Amino acid sequence: MITSCLPEGRSERGRRRLRPEERIVSASTQEPVTELQTVPSERVSRLRERIVHAPREACVERARYLTESMSAHWEEHPLTRISKALAHVLDNVSVVIHEDELIVGCRTSKLKGAPLFPENKSRWIEGDADSFEDRVIQKVCISEAEVRELKEEILPFWRGRTVEERFEELLPADVAEDMDKYVFTMILEITYGIGHFTMNHRRILERGLSGVIADLHLKQGAMTADERAGEGGRLYDAMIRSLSAAIRFAHRHAEMAEAMAARESDPGRAAELEKIARVCRRVPEHPASSFHEAVQCVYFIHLIAQIESGGNSISLGRIDQTLSPYYEADLRAGRITPDRARELLSLLFLKTNEIWNILEEAFIPGGEGTEGKTTQNVTVGGMGPDGADATCALSSIGLDAFADVRTVQPNFGVRLSPDAPEDFFLRAIRYARDGVPLHLFNDGVIVDSLVDAGHALEDARDYGVVGCLEPNAQGKTFGSTFAVQINGVKCVELALSNGVDNVFGYRSGIESGDPAEFTSFEEVWGAYSAQLSHALGQVERGMGALDQAIAEMLPSPFASAMVEGPMEKGLDLTRGGAIYNSTGVQLIGFANVVDSLTAIEKAVFEEKFLSLGDLAECLETDWEDAEGVRSHLLREIPKYGNDDPEADAMATRVLTHFCDEVLRHENIRGGSFWPGIFSVGFHVAMGAFAGASPDGRRAGEVLGNGITPGSGCASSGATALLNSVTRLPVGRAHNGTNLNLRFNPRWLRAEALASLMKTYFELGGSQVQFNMIDTETLRDAQRNPEAYRDLVIRVSGYSALFTELSELAQEEIISRMEYDA
Amino acid sequence: MGQYYRDVDQMFEIYGHFLERILTHEKIGPKMSSANIIVKFIYTDPDCEITIDLKNPPERAGAYGSFHLGPCDVKADVWSRQSADHSHRFWHGLENPIASVAKGKVKQGGNVVAMLKLLPVARRAFEMFPVALRELGYDHLVLTRGEK
C-alpha cells in the first residue's frame, strides 16, 4: 500500500498544498503502476547501437571554412563577417546522410564528430591536438593531416584574433589573478560560446525561414538610411544572410538524398530517401505541413545554431508542445500512427547524440562526461501559458521515445504541473524506476520562481529547460546560465584562514579577520559572507569583460533570429537583444558549507569542544594528529539531510544568503545574476582544490553535489532527506537546483517511488533525478567497462556514460547514499 | 639552459633529495601514497625526466613510494611536461597550477584527473622544497615571493 512518505503537518508551512482531486496519485492508491511498452523500432535499435559505439572524432571542416571566410572578410563589421562565415560553412561542409536515417543533418563529416571553434579560443587546440588520441578521458581520433591543417593553415590566422585574447585585454588584472585560485570559475563560456538557450521553433514551424526573412525585409524597408547602416540594419542583413544559408544547407541535403535515392537498389530505402528529399526541400524554408517535416525542421534549426556558435547546451526545450499540432493534424488525417511518431522522436533524440564538443584537457576535471558542454535539454509535460495542464498525447509518446533510446543525450526532463494526468506521472515514474535517465521538474515551484525573477506569468508557465536543469522562458531568453561556479567551501576555508588558501599556502581571499580572535559565530558568518561577497564582486567584473569580448567579436545573428527580442530590438543576442537576460552563478559544495557552519556553531560556540583557532589549525594541517576532533565533527554534529531542524535551518540560511548576494549583481546585457545550486562535475574538481572543512571532510575529497547532502551524510533515509530538502526556499535559486537520489532498484517498487515523489513535490521540491543502479553493478562496470559501454548514469544535472568517467568521478557516484525506499 | 639548474646532474641531485624527504615523511608520504598513481615529469632546460611511482610497492623500506631519476620502464598513468625553471618555481608555491595548464606553461596528459589526488600534499611539499635546497647547500636557489 502506498502511503504518504512525509509526516503529517509538514505541508502546513505555507506552501500550496495540492487539493485531493489534484493529486498526481492518491496516497491510498493500490493500483499497480502502468506496464510499459518499451519496444523500440528495429531502426531505432540499429541507430542507437551505431551512435553509442561510434568513436569520437575531431573534424576540421567547420574550422577550415570559417577561417577561409573570416580571413577574407576580417575588416568588415563583426555581424557581417560572422554571417558570411556561417554561410560559407553551410555552403561547403560535407552533407552526410547516414544509412537508415530519416531525420538528417550533421555538424561534421564524421558520425560522432566534433567541430572546432578556433574563433573563440585557439591556444588550447594548438596545445592539445597532438595528444587528442592519447587521452584517458574523452579520447578523440584525429588524422595527422587534420592536425597539420590545423597547425599550418587554420590556427595561425587566429593568433591575436580570438575572443579569449580580447577577454584577456579587457579583464582587470586583479580579477585575472583571482581567476586562477579556484575560488570561482568563469571562463567556461569562451570555448564554445555562451549558448544555453532554447529557440522559438514554433515561429519557424509556422512561418518558415522564408517568412522570417520576409519580416526582416519589411523591417529594413521601414528603416532610414542611417538606421540601415547602424547596428540594427547590419543585424538584419546578417540575419537574412544566415537564414538564406540555412535554407541552402537544407536544399543540399535534399540534393544529396535525391542522388542517393537514384543510386539505391532497395526500393524501400529509395522511397525513404525521396521522402527525405521532399522534406528538406520544404523545411525549414517553408512552414511545416506534417509531423515528419516539423521534426526535421526543429533539428535543422537546432543543428545550425550549434554550428554557428559552438553549441554550449543549446537546448530543444518543450518538444511536445512544439510538435503536438503537427502530430494531431497528421493523426486526424490518418497520416501517422503513434508508433511512427515515437520512432521519429527517437530518431531526433538519437541525432542529438552526434552533437558533442572536445573539452580542453585542462577543463576535463570540471566537466567530464558532459559531452563537451553540449548538454541538450528537452522536456515533455507541464502547464501551458494559460496555466492549464498541457500534457498531451505527444508528451507520453516523447517519454516512450526517450525510453527507447536511453542515451546520454538529450538531457530528458518531465515537467509536472499540479494537474498532471496521473497516468503520465506514473509512466514517468515507472521509467525512472526502470533506470531511464530522466529528471522531474515541479511546475508549481519553478513558475513561481521565474515570476519572482521577473518573468511574465505566461512566459514563466511556458518555461523551457537549458543545460543541466536551468529553467527560463522558452525561445525568449539568453541566459548565460552556467557562467560562474563559486566554491562555497573555499569561502569557508578562507574565512577560517584570514584569506590564505590551505591547499597551496598563498593568499586567495581577502583578509577577513584572524579566526582566533572571533568570539561569536556571527563573526565567522561575517567572514564567510565577506569572502563570498568579494568573489562575487570579482565575478561581476570578470563576466562584464567576458560578455563584452563575446559581443564585440562573435555576435550570433542566426540564433538572434530564432529567439524573441533581437528582431524587435534590432540588437544581437550577445548585446542583450533577448527579452530575458541572465547570468547563472552556482554555489558548489552547498551541503559542505552548511555542515561546516553548523559544526562551527555547535562544536566551537555551543559545546566549546574546541577553539576556533584550534579548528583552523586542524584544517590547515588536514587533520594531522586530530583524528579525534575530525571524528567528533563528522559523526556527532547534525548534518543537513537528516530532517534535523538545526542543520536544516543553517541550510536555509546559507541558501538564502547566497541568493541574496548573487541577486545584487547585474550583467551587461541588461539582466541579473541568477543563483543556482547544481554542480555539473565541479563538486569533484572544486573538492580537489579545497582544503579540509569543518564538517570533517579531508582536503581534496569530493563535495556534495547540488542541494544533495554530502556523500554518506544523509543516513536517516530518503524520507528524512526529502524533509530536509523541502525546507529549503529553493524557488529563490532562479537558475535551478539539483537533487540526486540513488536507489537500489532491487528493493524499490514504482508505487513507492511515486508516493515519495508526489509528496516531495507537494512539499515544494523543485527538481529531482535518480540513479537506479546498485553498487555491485557499478563495481562490475569498473572491472568490465566493455560490457557496460552504454551504462548511462546521472551526474549532477546531466547524464554521462559511467565507464567514460574518471575513477574519481566514478567513486563519487558509488559513494552516494543508496536508499531502499 | 634555464635560470636555476646548471645541468641534469644538479637537478637530479636536488629532486632526488627532495623526493626522498617527502616520500619518507611520516605525514606527507602516506597522503602521497594514497593517490595510487604513477606520474612522469618531463622537463626541459635541462631535458630530463623523473617518475614518481605511488602505485607499486615502494622499492625501499621506510618509504611510501619510489622515484626514478631519468628514463625508466615504469608505465606512467599521467605525465606532465614543463620547463625545469617552471618546476623550480612551482615547488616553491610560486606558480599557480591551474593557470600554468591553462596558459600552456605546463602540458599534461594521460589520466589527468588522477593528478588531483596529489593536491592535498601541495602545501607541505612547498614547505619542504626550500628546506631540501638548503640542506644541499643551494641556499642561493631558494626563492621568495616576488622573486620569480
Could you give the order of strands across the largest sheet of chain A? 4-5-6-7-14-13
Let me know the average pLDDT of chain A: 92
Q: How would you classify the quaternary structure?
A: heterodimer
What value does the Rg of chain B take, in angstroms? 14 Å
Name the CATH architecture of chain B: 2-Layer Sandwich
Beta-strand segment tally of chain A: 16
Name the strands of the widest sheet of chain B in spatial order: 3-2-1-4-5
Helix content of chain B: 25-40%
Q: DSSP strand (E) fraction of chain B?
A: 15-25%
Q: What is the C-level CATH assignment of chain B?
A: Alpha Beta
How many individual helices of chain B?
A: 6
Chain pair with largest interface: A-B, 35 and 28 residues
* SS strand fraction of chain A: 5-15%
Give a nutshell description of this structure.
Chain A is an alpha/beta fold.
Describe this structure in words.
The complex is a heterodimer of chains A (821) and B (148). Chain A is of the alpha/beta class. Chain A contains 33 helices and 16 strands. The radius of gyration of chain A is 26 Å and the shape is globular. Residues 1-35 of chain A have low confidence and may be disordered. Chain B has 148 residues and is an alpha+beta fold. The longest helix of chain B is centred in the N-terminal third of the chain and has 16 residues, at 8-23. Chain B has a five-stranded mixed sheet. In chain B, strand 1 and strand 2 form a beta hairpin.
